[in-house]
Amino acid sequence: MIRVALVENETLVREGLRRVLELDAGVRVEAEARDGVEALELLPRLRPDVVLLDVRMPRLDGLAVLAGLARESTPVPCIVLTTFDDADAFLAAVRAGARGYLLKDASSEELGQAIRAVASGGTWFKPAVSEAVLRGLSSVAPDPPRDGVAADLTARELEVLRLLAGGYSNREIGDALGVAERTVKNHVASILGKLWVRDRTRAVLKALSLGLL
Prior knowledge:
The chain is α/β, with parallel strands linked by helices and 213 residues long. The chain is built from eleven helices and five strands, in the order E-H-E-H-E-H-E-H-E-H-H-H-H-H-H-H. It has two domains: 2-135, 3-Layer(aba) Sandwich (Rossmann fold); 141-209, Orthogonal Bundle (Arc Repressor Mutant, subunit A), CATH 1.10.10.10. The protein starts with a strand and ends with a helix.
């Protein structure tokens, strides 16, 4: 059972999310918070598996919540929810440590898929972000991409990269490709090095900006 916390200041939206999640037998709504202040009081103590986090809230917004959680030794994974396809909000959320990003009009099926991907250690940034977001991705990683990076990635590494973009865990990628989880870890480490990024989220974003996905 995946334990989910809802952080949303609009009562109708929060209640709607709860009702949708109650239809999913594999998910349980563990807690709710009406703003960022309540969230930072609840989340470190309850340690849910996934947080659905609104960006724009009174008193303390979603980005401030992400920053506060990042100070924990093992931050609770968050999926940012927003009404608008906002490039600035997307990039700020990724920089702050969001593991997923969804528009509030996402289907219940996609919401469930995103929750499961993030709960298993993956990310969820699909469907592909908009052109406005892609134009801003160059600022996500400080190191400039090397020439010929697409050519540097092997065919298997590109397969792994596409599965990373889908939010799959190392174990799930290994099962899909018929290889050991340790082999997947080696591929991921190689991808991070070739893309000059520090983690899986930035690898997916850099790959999007380079047109590899």
